[in-house]
Amino acid sequence: MAISAVARETVFALRRQIAKIEGTLPERLQAPAPATLDADAGVGPGVDLTIVRRGLAAALPDAFLPIGVERLDAALGGGLPKAALTEIHGLETRDAGAVAGFALSLVSLILNQAQGLPILWIGTSEIFHEAGFPYARGLHATFGIEPGQLLFSEAPRLVDALWVAEEAARMTALAAVILEIRGNPQRLDLTATRRLHARAQGAGRPVFLLRQAAGPEPTAAPVRLIAASAPAVPRETIAGPLAGSIGRPAFTVSIGKSRTALPGQFTLEWNPDERGFEERRDKERRAENPVPVVSLSGGRKDPAAAAGEILAFPAVGSPISPTPGNQPPPGQRATHLGPRRAG
Amino acid sequence: MGIADARAMHPSIDIVEADPEADRRLLEGLADWCDRYTPLVALDGIDGLFLDVTGCTHLFGGERAMLDEILSRFLQQGFDVRAGLAGTPGAAWAAARFCGDRIVASGEEEALLAPLPLAALRIAQEIRTSLESVGLRTAGAVMAAPRAPLVRRFGALLLQRLDQALGRLDEAISPRLPVAPLSVERHLAEPVTLTEEIERLVGMLATTLKTDLERRGEGARSLALLLFRVDGAVSRIALGTSRPMREPLLIKKLFHERLAALEQQIDAGYGFDLVRLSVLAVAAFDTQQTDLTGEAADDGADIALFADCIRARLGEGAVLQPVAVESHLPERAVAIVPFAEAPRRTTPPKKPDRMQAPMTIFPPERPIRLFRAPEPIDVPVTEMPEGPPLHFRWRRALYRVTRAEGPERIAAEWWREAPGDPAASTRDYFRIEDGDGRRYWLYRQGLYGNPQVPPRWFMHGVFA
After folding, report:
1. pLDDT in tens, B172-210
2. DSSP strand E in B378-438: where?
3. Other CB atoms within 10 Å distance of the CB of residue B455
4. So where are chain B's domains?
5. Cα separation, B28 vs B49, whole angstroms
């Protein structure tokens, strides 16, 4: 009995090894759990219904970092892979705050489990000049990362930055490595990212590749997310939302590439106190412009009929008689239709 | 003789201007090369070198063999050298300049000096002239003269030089470089040129060094590798470590990175025939207790080694660490220091210490990225004189402000800066959000009241 258990353990270990070498995990398709369906029922059945790949038989139980947002985790197939290179793109350099903020909130989630380990942030001199140097006070307040946990490396050239990142990616003493690059340089090609990915896999630590103002390119990273900033909701007070105030950081995250190949766009809010993400569902809060998009009707007595009610051609057999409700009252007629006054 | 006269005599003469700086550099290069014989090498004026070879001669097969080797090597390099070896610097100086290639045994200084002219005593020209005017023309005559009148008439320096030359007074030479506490070296019969060979030699030298460091209970904080090229050029490669280190593999790894970075600058030429590894600074090495799995409890060592590797290759400021500073000015509140100079991280306290400052309930919002120099922005109009801008132009793009929080007024630190107009350096910070949801940290310097000095607006940071 004991021997068979040991043998089974060995077989599992070997399977894991093979899966690690291949870079993929043996999976099988499985219908989503009922809880997921219930959560999505409010949005509308059938809209959010996705097939979730679960049952990672040979994967380690903590191979994925759950982001904490059900839909995003489902779309990514369980969360962000922990031992991998993850690309986070920003479309413009001025999105650097959002891109860095999103990456740091992921790091903060990792630090919830790996207490006290330092993180290393590598950047070229160019990006630190263009987008600003990381500010430890803000990082501590927003993401709970102590200044003593932070290490920065500023390299004048991209080659040096890549070298530092490769050296750092295989360290198990670091909780995470962030490499920040601007644009689409020639050197950061498939080979360079594959090297980073392989080292991250070996060490079991995540490497975040922040690419500011970059277009999508073929890389070895299994996941690519595109982050942008989203308008924040007002601060909550006892008396309700405080008008004009800027609340928690919010990001718009869309999936550019993932193992499940499911598209999606999510508005995430970072809670600095709880250190967790919340998804913002209602789209109406985004449009907080007090001016209505369509001007209201003049008298307000007769609201516009719902779409589909008015037919250009009445149904066959019905008498053609314009209902008075469809006509504006005489006083509201347009001026050009009224009797023209001479003089 | 002027240049014109010289040209008249030899029309094909080549005129080269004197370059004392280049002469000096050459002498220093020679002094570097002489490090292979002894760590105590001093410059002597503009045309000489002192080598303190006490305790080094047996390494080269005795005094005569050492002197011959030095002379023949200099000759091979194309230098015409006079050398003398004696028990005192003064006697050696005189032997080198007036006898040439002579070894003076201890106690024979007087016999050496007696027939030599007064210049052999290293005294100034005026003293020499006045001595000659009274008939003292050799060093021997000065030695024979009574001491008290000599001191009275010619000053104390004369007899001091004489006593130093004769060994009655100690004279120390001041070496150019501090003597390393420990150094190991290897003479090579066949010069090496490949970087891999040098790295292997470093590993071997570091293994030798380890036993010495262990005996002393110390670890190296600063190391230097000296490569002596066959033709006399010396390369000196120094690196520092953030923790005391004695492990040969780690030392080898650090030098591997350093040599990789310096690959373009080190010219192996015909090869290096002497490799020396010196420990320039040591620190106490506290041995770590490992647990039964063989892992040390302290995981900071990995980080320290990693930082050392990066530093060896990319320079001192390659790995930085923020340190919180007590200041309310945003740019001063965090100091970015090199990793080696940062205070060591200790385990965070489990419960808040009573000595700590009380935690602020609502700490002011701070950006996650801060520009090193605040960037000026163009603000055409604000809603209120003291209020946030409605629009602003930053990096040639126009931003519409949809929401703003503030102002947070941050005044200058009057106890640090020169007193000036306090209103001019006071900043009002606004946290604003633009139409796309990007959040920025702006400030206004100055107030709107003064028409002479209009306020200026700056972009200082970016929020998440």
Report:
1. 888 888 888 999 999 999 999 999 999 999 999 999 999
2. 391-394, 397-410, 427-434
3. 20
4. 20-166, 182-312, 369-462
5. 9
Beta strand A119-124 with A150-155 is parallel
Tell me if chain B has a CB within 8 Å of the CB of A164: yes
Task: Report domain extents, chain A.
Answer: 59-285
Q: Which CATH superfamily is domain A59-285 in?
A: P-loop containing nucleotide triphosphate hydrolases (3.40.50.300)
Q: Which of B321, B370, B438 sits opposite A98 (nearest CB)?
A: B438
Structure tokens at A330: 């005489």
**Residue A48 pLDDT grade (very low, low, confident, very high; cuts 50, 70, 90):** very low
Rounded to whole angstroms, the Cα distance separating B229 from B35 reads: 12
247-276 of A, contacting B, C-beta below 8 A: 249-252, 270
Through-space distance between the first and last CA atoms of chain A, rounded to whole angstroms: 112
CA distances from B271 to B204, B232, B275, B406 (A): 18, 11, 11, 67
For chain B, the straight-line distance linking the first and the last C-alpha, in angstroms and rounded, comes to 79
Closest C-alpha to A136, from A128, A127, A126, A146: A146
Q: Tell me how far apart the alpha carbons of residues B275 and B228 are, in angstroms, rounded to a whole number.
A: 6
Q: Which of B348, B369, B395 sits opposite A96 (nearest CB)?
A: B369
Q: Chains A, B: CB contacts under 8 A, how many?
A: 170
At A271, list the tokens. 């809670």
Q: Give the DSSP letter of residue B292.
A: T
A168: exposed, middle or buried (C-beta count within 10 Å: 0-12, 13-18, 19+)?
buried
Interhelix angle A158-169/B300-314, rounded to 10 degrees, is 160
pLDDT tens, position by position, B327-375: 888 988 999 999 888 776 554 444 444 444 445 566 788 999 999 999 9
Rounded Cα–Cα distance for residues A101 and A97 (Å): 6
- Tell me the angle at which helices B156-166 and B125-133 cross, rounded to the nearest 10 degrees: 100
Predicted confidence at residue B230, as pLDDT, reads 87
B454 three-state secondary structure: coil
Contact in structure between B207 and B5 (CB atoms under 8 Å) = no
> What is the C-alpha to C-alpha distance for residues A45 and A39, in angstroms, rounded to an integer?
10
B383 CB burial (10 A radius; 0-12, 13-18, 19+): exposed
How far from B296 is each of B290, B293, B400, CA to CA, in Å? Answer: 4, 9, 55
Decide if B366 and A135 are in contact by the 8 Å CB cutoff: yes
Q: At what angle do helices B248-261 and B195-216 cross, to 10 degrees?
A: 140
Does residue B178 contact residue B279 with C-beta atoms inside 8 Å? no
Q: What share of chain B is helix, strand, coil (3-state, %, to 5)?
A: 35, 25, 40
Distance CA B439, CA B436 (A): 9
Structure tokens at A210: 């922040």
Torsion of CA A284, A288, A292, A294, to 10 degrees: -50
Q: How far apart are CA B197 and CA A167, in angstroms?
A: 23
Please name the member of B310, B345, B405 whose beta carbon is closest to the beta carbon of A167: B310
Segment holding A86, helix H or strand E: strand A85-90
What residues of chain A lie within 8 A of the CB of B303, using their CB?
118, 151, 171, 173-174
Nearest CA in chain B to A157: B314
Q: At what angle do helices A190-203 and A158-169 cross, to 10 degrees?
A: 20
Higher-scoring residue by pLDDT: B218, A313: B218
* Closest Cα in chain A to B401: A244
Domain B182-312, second-level architecture: 2-Layer Sandwich (3.30)
In order of A218, A304, A330, B111, the CA distances from A301 in angstroms are 59, 10, 13, 131
Measured distance CA(B417)–CA(B61) in Å, rounded? 65
Q: Is A295 helix (H, G, I), strand (E, B) or coil?
A: coil
Which residue, chain included where needed, has tokens 């200099």?
A: B74
